[in-house]
Design brief:
single chain, about 55 residues, mainly alpha, 2 helices, globular
Length: about 55
């Protein structure tokens, strides 16, 4: 029995140039949300933005 990790969908590498103050804000939010990386935080942001708005 092998312990292979599940296949992740292929992605694209994206590079962002951000100000130091933005990085500090992202790092604080990343820690608050318990995420391990900036990549995880930005991915979560984009996933939330991509969801259709719930009309009330």
């Amino acid at each position: 029995m092998t312990s292979e990790s599940p296949k992740q969908p292929a992605g694209e590498l994206v590079t962002l140039e951000l100000s130091q103050s933005t990085l500090m804000w992202l790092d604080a939010l990343r820690e608050e949300w318990g995420l391990r990386s900036r990549e995880a935080l930005i991915s979560r942001f984009l996933d939330e933005l991509a969801q259709p708005a719930n009309d009330a």
